[in-house]
Design brief:
CATH superfamily of the largest domain: 2,3-Dihydroxybiphenyl 1,2-Dioxygenase, domain 1
Number of domains: 2
Strand content: 25-35%
Number of helices: 4
Mean pLDDT: 94
Structural class: alpha/beta
Low-confidence stretches: none
Largest sheet: 4 strands, mixed
Strand order of the largest sheet: 1-4-3-2
Shape: elongated
CATH topology of the largest domain: 2,3-Dihydroxybiphenyl 1,2-Dioxygenase, domain 1
CATH class of the largest domain: Alpha Beta
CATH architecture of the largest domain: Roll
Order of helices and strands: EHEEEHEHEEEH
Length: 143
């Protein structure tokens, strides 16, 4: 089995969150979805588990911070092009997401935008030309 990641997020409205993630390109996996949780997949390796607050409490007694006012993580998702970064950001905006809550990153070799999901979790979406980035970093080290 290849290595996978499952990002677990507490959500206040499971159906609203499922609809949001489907609108930006994630696919629901009904095998791991019920009235308390939904598995949303961006690829076979990248999955988001949306958990109601009651289900979240089954995993940890820690309080759930309000992601609209507190940030504990910034989630990042790569895309294949600058256009794909703008496309997913536009889809999120069409669903009412706050767009670019973090600074836009724009250079010759990297482009990134961001959005907040309905619960305030920040997703940074980025494209990178790895060869150009490596060259730029090597130049910086040489200088």
């Amino acid at each position: 089995m290849s290595q996978m990641i499952f990002v677990n997020l507490p959500v206040t409205d499971l159906e609203r969150s499922k609809a949001f993630y489907e609108s930006i390109g994630a696919t629901n996996n009904p095998q791991f979805t019920d009235r308390n949780a939904a598995m949303m997949s961006f690829s076979t390796e990248v999955n988001v588990m949306l958990l109601t607050h009651a289900r979240w409490a089954d995993f940890t007694p820690k309080a759930i911070p309000d992601a609209k006012t507190n940030a504990q993580v910034l989630l990042a998702l790569s895309r294949d092009s600058r256009g794909a970064v703008d496309a997913i950001t536009a889809k999120a905006q069409a669903q009412g997401a706050l767009i670019d809550p973090t600074p836009i990153q724009d250079s010759d070799w990297m482009y990134g935008r961001s959005f907040e999901d309905p619960d305030g979790h920040i997703w940074e979406v980025m494209w990178m030309d790895v060869a150009a980035a490596s060259a730029a970093m090597a130049d910086a080290v040489s200088a």
